[in-house]
Write a structure and sequence with these properties.
The chain has a 7-stranded mixed beta sheet, sandwiched between helices. It is α/β, with parallel strands linked by helices. The chain starts with 7 loop residues before the first helix and ends with a strand. It folds into 2 domains: 181 residues, Rossmann fold; 63 residues, N-terminal domain of TfIIb. It has 6 helices and 11 strands.
Length: 255
Amino acid sequence: MDLKYKNVASVYDLVYESRTDDVRFYLDQAVEAAPRRLAEFGCGTGRVTLGLAELLPETRIVAVDMDADEVEVLKDAVRARGIDTVETRCELIQSFEGEGIDLAIAPFRVFQHVVEPTEFEACLRRIAQSLRPGGRFVFDLFNPSIPMLSTTGVIASQTFVDGEGHRIERVVTVNDRDHFRQTQLIEEDYTVTTPEGETYDLHWHYRTRYYFLGEVVPLVERAGFEIVRIDSDYRGTPFGEGEYPGDLVFHLVRK
């Protein structure tokens, strides 16, 4: 059987190719900072990384993610494009070794996958320690939607077709909400149909935590950051003035 999509990581770029607002935002942040050294935490398959390498050919980029499958997809893309400025690492943020970073970013709600606030703070401390004094850190979270927190079940059902005729049906379900710990089980299930009509399934189930603004502010401050501003979207709208629920986009500087 044709197994072009052997795991969820290999489907990722197709699923998220229309999500471009945050990519443009992080690229703009990097161009503005003009860093010599940049660290991207939660790089995934390189949705942002590859654009950074293209726009900033003189910048050394360290791309970090804990998902080995996604890092492999990025490694393949880096090799295919002949990029020699990107170093990929499969590791936890808390284990990251590096210093003198000018700009750090953590796109696409990376910290929603950190289910313990103490672990979140440990990640923030490690990132702060890796930055040079005055270095910048930009990351985003989703702003929790109060109405949605009472719901479970299917939250998305989508169909994608690639250029070779593979049909991918994606169903995303939220289950097992724990309102005390602010966690939820996300189940992403995929059915892939090959051009020849054969089908197979892929699954990615993981637990996430939602954080409210009031929880995150003391974490970043204790970790050694000064908050420059917090936006509610990728267009620079101050938090509280944009559409609800929006996002939490943090602009920080190492103290």
